[in-house]
Amino acid sequence: GDSVTQMEGPVTLSEEAFLTINCTYTATGYPSLFWYVQYPGEGLQLLLKATKADDKGSNKGFEATYRKETTSFHLEKGSVQVSDSAVYFCALSGNYGGSQGNLIFGKGTKLSVKP
Amino acid sequence: DSGVTQTPKHLITATGQRVTLRCSPRSGDLSVYWYQQSLDQGLQFLIQYYNGEERAKGNILERFSAQQFPDLHSELNLSSLELGDSALYFCASSVEMGTYNEQFFGPGTRLTVL
């Protein structure tokens, strides 16, 4: 079945450092790919998404490119801030007959940014 | 604030008991999804409803059931509770079903089974 694998961390960075969180997937057909963020004590928020190969999703300085050839959707940010400290989840939604849009998540990566 | 509300925020109960978790989707959203977040299993899809009808099932135990009412709110019923059912339960909603629709998540209900 469909699955998502992401680096589990935790990841600790200094403010203004470069961030990469790796995510790879296994899926039937051409899924949509998402990054969600969960701040402490809150629900998940959509950070960015990409719905077809070579699409780049971007939001709040974060970017991820849908790479079909490597089945990857790595999250990057050029300069992290303390306020980016959270848990980041990579997810996919299948795009095939019978798929109803439910999300399949990776295990999550906890990011801590130190001042 | 996503516009999705969940009650209660916290629930503490004993093994063998039954509880009901409630979710109100964003105004206008027809689709409701339930997810379970636990330390060992991570975030897992449980079940989805669309406009009152069940449309997809994930890793939902037979002891668990759900429904979506005519006003589109949804309830997740958990019965014969076990210690392992302790988790954070999220509800999410979207306008439609399908791959491209963004899901908006509620703040979750934290269930503790003692």
Keywords:
heterodimer; A: 115 residues; mainly beta; 6-stranded mixed beta sheet; 4-stranded antiparallel beta sheet; 12 strands; 0% helix; 50% strand; globular; B: 114 residues; 7-stranded mixed beta sheet
Write up this protein.
The complex is a heterodimer of chains A (115) and B (114). By secondary structure, chain A is mostly beta strands. Chain A has strands at residues 3-6, 11-14, 19-21, 23-26, 32-38, 44-50, 56-59, 62-65, 75-77, 86-93, 103-105, 109-114. In chain A, the strands form three sheets. In chain A, strands 2, 5, 6, 10, 11 and 12 form a six-stranded mixed sheet that branches. Chain A has a four-stranded antiparallel sheet with strand order 3-9-8-7, with no helix packed on it. Chain A has a two-stranded antiparallel ribbon with strand order 1-4. The radius of gyration of chain A is 14 Å and the shape is globular. Chain B contains no helices and eleven strands. Chain B has strands at residues 5-7, 10-13, 19-24, 31-38, 42-50, 53-57, 64-68, 74-78, 87-94, 104-105, 109-113. The model of chain B has no long low-confidence stretch (mean pLDDT 93). The interface between A and B is medium-sized, with 24 and 30 residues.
> Beta-sheet strand percentage of chain A?
over 45%
Major sheet characteristics of chain A: 6 strands, mixed
Low-confidence stretches of chain A: none
Given as residue ranges, the uncertain stretches of chain B (5+ residues, pLDDT < 50) are none
What fraction, in percent, of the residue positions of chain B are helical?
under 10%
Shape of chain A: globular
Rg of chain A, please?
A: 14 Å
**Helix vs. strand class of chain B:** mainly beta
Radius of gyration of chain B: 13 Å
* DSSP summary, beta strand count of chain B: 11
- Helix and strand element order of chain A: EEEEEEEEEEEE
> Which whole number gives the mean pLDDT of chain B?
93
> Helix coverage percent of residues of chain A?
under 10%
